[in-house]
Amino acid sequence: MVAQEFTVDLDKPLVFQVGHLGEAYQEWVHQPIVSVEGPRFFESDFWESLTRTEWYAIPIIWLPVVCWFILKSVRMGLTLPQIVVMVVLGIFIWTLLEYTLHRFLFHIKTKSYWANTIHYLLHGCHHKHPMDGLRLVFPPAATAVLLVPFWNLVKLISTPSTTPALFGGGLLGYVMYDCTHYYLHHGQPTSNAARSLKKYHLNHHFRIQNKGFGITSAVWDRVFGTLPQTKAAEKAR
Ligand SMILES: [Zn+2]
Ligand SMILES: [Zn+2]
Question: How far is the CA of 75 from the centre of ligand 2 (A)?
């Protein structure tokens, strides 16, 4: 059956439309609309409000939670050097998690109605509207849900007293990542390192989608290797 060509009406809420694009969704979602004004996602004001997050909500909400978990490990007897090691390890685990999720899940090729819809909510919206400042950081309500499996994952690889500090470190890594990601899109970096990070990330959006999966991807791309298409794309540049 040949699906009728579907056109997304950008003046109407987008989330329940994009699934109808079917196989054309992938091409559509990777043609960015570079406007700071974001589209409406849902008809419902309640769901719509959950999709809009100011960047500063991330440190305001999550840094106290980070502190609470770290202090929990302190109360359980961990020394300061042990805390530092656990927090750094947590940040490290976060960078690996962020890279693997971004590379192997967020860029999965979808074509069915619900797969397209979920992909759009998860990551597609950021590629379609990369400068939408209110849809850039992860909504706190969704983060709160995802913290449950993350807690269980951390619990698997640590002891009862190190689990909270490791988890707090991972959450701190997330906060650092989300704020940096926002800054790369909306800030004007002056240092060379920040400028090259910005260029690397914007390449992921606008030129080489098979590379640059996340803020620390310059490191992890070396470990995992870049995809064949990337090399071809790089040659073509
Ligand atoms: Zn981005
Ligand atoms: Zn991406």
Answer: 39
**Structure confidence at residue 230 as a pLDDT band (50, 70, 90):** very low
Q: What is the distance in A from the centroid of ligand 1 to the CA of 67?
A: 27
> How far away, in angstroms, is 22 Cα from ligand 2 center?
20
At 184-203, the pLDDT tens digits run 999 999 999 999 999 889 98
Q: From ligand 2's centre to the CA of 105, what distance in Å? A: 10
Measure 1 CA to ligand 2 centroid, in angstroms: 31
Tens-place pLDDT, residues 119-147: 999 999 999 999 999 999 999 999 999 99
Q: Residue 50 has which token pair?
A: 């959950």
Angle at 174 (CA atoms; ends 74, 126), nearest 5 degrees:
165
What residues contact residue 49 under an 8 Å CB cut-off, 6+ apart?
none
